[in-house]
Design goal:
The structure holds two protein chains of two kinds.
Chain A lengths: L18 H8 L7 H4 L13 E6 L2 E6 L3 E3 L2 E4 L5 E5 L2 E4 L4 H22 L5 H14 L1 H5 L7 E6 L4 E7 L5 E4 L2 E4 L3 H11 L6 H18 L15 E6 L2 E4 L2 H12 L1
Antiparallel strand pairs in A: 1-2, 1-10, 2-11, 3-4, 5-6, 6-7, 7-8, 8-9, 11-12
Helix pairs in contact in A: 6-7, 7-8
Chain B lengths: L8 H17 L4 E6 L2 E7 L8 E5 L2 E7 L1 H21 L7 H18 L6 E7 L12 E5 L5 E4 L2 E4 L3 H11 L6 H13 L13 E7 L7 E3 L2 H8 L1
Helix pairs in contact in B: 4-5
The chains are: A alpha+beta, B alpha+beta.
């Protein structure tokens, strides 16, 4: 690799700016192979559940519950489904947890790698497109039941707006208007957002909508986890604006929940 | 059939070294300084797009002088190495020492095996993080055109005019300076170089930091107006 044992010229090897292609050419043993993951039994692999994303006055919010299930059992109570992929973009995963988390991780390394090699960041469109290709790569696994269907959202620094994309298992990419949800409880979250979302909401109102959507979904969908007060586990709510991404603290989420109850 | 002339190995190495030195001495110097908040890298560079200083990983920065195409290629090799290692193991397993040694290998091998040596001199700077045991100290490594590597403390200068600049910093450098003081010290040293501009301003400076207290990626390129503010 790059610095080789045994001299073979310092300019040899992959020369582009994509981390995924770099692994494919110079470090094949590390390249993510989602197909291999599909060999296992589908029922026993943890599945993710409700995630949502919507716009507000300063950008875009993305939220997800913490529960992962395998069949009828709880696989994990505090799995992370919402990830910042760089300073201004984030991904929410619903579907088979293993490949989805790996995909989020590879995407964030990919974006950072491009930024360092090229000296500038990809446009938000470019990032969304890159994710399409990664999902398409996962297609054979998707056909065997290990679908990875993420939401992608971020702040577009050129257009100065928040933007949201939804994907299907073939890598199809659809830009959404104001809100989108995914996962088994997505429908219930969608209903809640439809009722409470308003144009140009403040960030506090946006937090309330996000927490309301996840709790509504958890109420109806058995595979979605709401706020777990006993264990102190709260949904993840990420807020992305021009200044970057911040995650709402557990106390903020708790306060928001109490506002909703009152 | 042509007979190659015999050239003694000493002569060959000397010629190569002289060639590399000449190439490097044409360029401007880069100064690296430790300060209270981390490590500062500062270069005279009127170009905003052809950068001499770059981010390698969370705590590691790269600086190169000499032939742009060569040190920029080395920088990219470093990014590929670091990202792959961080992906395969963990982000904390990417260390400056291993990277500097790898650079030393590749530059040294090129020096002995190729007709033309690399006309570059580089710095690998790694800021310490008190939150990680065994990672608390800053490290600054300097790798020369023949692959020789050294471990520097306090400050370090690379480039054609390094010795007089180091002598100047010897008197002006203090430990734990604040950001404004260290940027000024760096600028003053660069300005007093033989081929330097004594009134070096923010427009002709490339200034980057490794900020110890910053979460995650600690590398930051200072925008021109911030540099101007610090120098004012």
């Amino acid at each position: 690799m790059f610095f080789r044992n045994g001299y073979s010229g310092w300019r040899s090897g992959y020369q582009g700016s994509s981390f995924i292609e770099l692994l494919g050419e110079d470090a094949q043993h590390l390249a993510p192979n989602f197909e291999a993951l599909a060999q296992g039994s589908i029922e026993e692999i943890p599945h993710g559940t409700t995630v949502c994303s919507f716009k507000f006055s300063d950008g875009v919010v993305m939220a997800g519950d913490r529960l992962a299930t395998a069949g009828h059992s709880v696989a994990s109570r505090e799995v992370q489904k919402v990830f910042a992929t760089d300073a201004h973009s984030m991904i929410a995963i619903a579907g088979a947890a293993g490949p989805a988390i790996e995909m989020a991780r590879v995407l964030s390394v990919e974006l950072e790698h491009y930024e360092k090699i090229e000296g500038e960041r990809l446009e938000l469109d470019g990032k969304a497109n890159k994710l399409s290709q990664m999902i398409r790569q996962n297609l054979p696994a998707a056909m065997q039941g290990l679908a990875v269907v993420p939401l992608f959202a971020g702040y577009d620094l050129r257009r100065r707006v928040g933007r949201i994309w939804q994907y299907d298992i073939t890598g199809g990419r659809y830009e959404e208007g104001n809100a989108e949800t995914s996962g088994s409880g997505g429908l219930y979250a969608q209903e809640h957002i439809k009722k409470t979302w308003r144009e140009g909401m403040s960030s506090q109102d946006a937090l309330d909508v996000a927490v309301g959507a996840i709790t509504a979904a958890a109420d109806e969908d058995r595979a979605t986890g709401g706020i777990d007060f006993d264990r102190g586990i709260f949904p993840i709510v990420n807020v992305c604006t021009e200044a970057g991404i911040t995650r709402a603290t557990d106390d903020e989420v708790r306060a928001s929940y109490e506002r909703l109850r009152s | 059939m042509s007979m190659p002339f015999y050239v003694s190995p000493e002569q060959l190495m000397q010629d190569k070294a002289e060639y590399a030195r000449k190439g490097i001495s044409r360029g401007k110097s880069i100064v690296t300084l430790e300060f209270a908040g981390g490590i500062l890298l500062i270069a005279e560079n009127p170009s905003k797009s052809l950068q001499k200083i770059g981010e390698i990983y969370d705590r590691i920065a790269f600086a190169g002088v000499g032939k742009f195409s060569e040190f920029d290629q080395l920088r990219k090799i470093g990014v590929r190495y670091a990202d792959t290692r961080g992906y395969a193991y963990s982000r904390d397993d990417v260390r400056g020492k291993a990277l500097a040694n790898a650079y030393s290998q590749v530059i040294g091998e090129t020096f002995t095996r190729e007709m033309k040596p690399l006309e570059v001199e580089i710095i690998v700077a790694e800021v310490g993080d008190p939150r990680f045991v065994g990672h608390e100290e800053n490290s600054i490594y300097r790798v020369r055109f023949d692959g020789s590597i050294s471990d520097e403390h306090g400050f370090c200068v690379i480039g054609g005019n390094a010795e007089p600049l180091e002598a100047q910093l010897q008197s002006s450098f203090q430990e734990d300076m604040d950001l404004a003081a260290v940027v000024r010290a760096g600028r003053d040293a660069l300005g007093r170089a033989e081929n330097g501009d004594p009134d070096l301003g923010a427009a002709n400076l490339e200034v980057c930091l490794l900020e110890r207290e910053h979460e995650g990626r600690k590398f930051r390129r200072l925008p021109q107006d911030e540099v101007a503010g610090l120098l004012a």
